[in-house]
UniProtKB/TrEMBL annotation:
Pfam short name (any one): SCVP
InterPro entries xref list: SCVP
Keywords, in A-Z order: Signal
Signal as UniProt keyword: yes
Protein's organism: Ancylostoma caninum (Dog hookworm)
Protein name: Uncharacterized protein
Position of the signal peptide: 1-18
Amino acid sequence: MSRLLIALVLAAVELVRSSSWEMVQVTLASENYGNNMKYALDDFHDLFDEFAQQQGIRFHRGNFREIETFIKGLPVAKYGLRGVDCEQFRQFLSGVKAQKYHLQYAAVKCGPMTFSFCMAFSCAPEDFLFRNATTSTTAVTTTVSPTTSTTAVTTTVSATTSTTAVTTTTTVSAKASNE
C-alpha cells in the first residue's frame, strides 16, 4: 500500500514537468474593475514580458495565445503558453508583487495540476478555479497581513485515483520585505 502511495505522489509531481510543447494555461484576474479591459490586459502583457525577459525567451503567435478575456464580467484573461517550463512560470508568479500588475488572482495549469495564487484580501479562489481538474488539484493561497507584515503560503496537492487519495500540505510563513 505504501509503495502505491509513493508511486502516486511521484507520478503527480512528474505531471508538473510538462514537455516544452504542452500548453501551459494561465488565468489572471485584475483588481481593476470596470468596463475598460485595456488596462488589465496591458498589465498582464507586462507580466509576461518580464517573465520572457528573465528566461531569455520571446513570446509570439506560435507560443502565446490569448484564449479568453473579460470572463463573467470580470477583468480576467486566460492564456496558453508553449515552450515554457511550467514550474519556472509558477515560481515566477509566486515571486511577483501583486500591486505591480494589479493582480487579484493568478493560476497556472500544468497538465492535470493547477496552482492557484490568491493575491488580494477579497479574493475567493473557488471563483476562478479551473473546473476540469478532476484527477489532480493543487491550490496555493497567499494571504498578506497588513499589521504583521507576514506572508503565509499554504500549498495543498491532492491526487485521486479510483481507490486511493493522497493529500500533501505544506505551510510556510515569512516576513514580507518593504521594497
